[in-house]
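Revision sheet: structure tokens.
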Amino acid sequence: MVFNGQISSISIRPEPSKAVVEIDQVLSVPGKGLEGDYYFAGIAPKGVEPAREITLIEKETLQAPEIEHNIFFGPVESRLNLITENVPLNHLVGKEFRVGNVTLRGIRLCEPCALLASLTQKEILPALVHRGGLRAQILKKEIIRVGDTVSNLENILDEELAHAEPDQ
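Predicted:
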């Protein structure tokens, strides 16, 4: 599957009970998460594990509740780290992909939970079932920026092969 999307928003939460903060760039660190996020600080209620290092959701998914149920649901309300555009996140479970220069591995889907509905005070769960985002593991330490390209490694390898010098 070939795709080329981008990051439209980055968010972190300094503490579990604190509001989400939108930022322009963030350092991703394997085994820790995103610098400034409470997972990175090691104060996550469920602890740090590969599936919780970074979370992503599609911008198109955030627009669906408004289109389908007349419920506005913005990037900050999702409480996830990266908002992507034109990236089929559900297809990245078990796959490695790139965000800018950072390599990530999709671990599992991020299904919506009752806490999300409680915090947003919205009947959001039906609109997000099976499209609530992706939990991923960080494989390379690097800065992620708004506007970074998101692409699958198959696409990157095909592009590198197409531009490689022929063997002599």
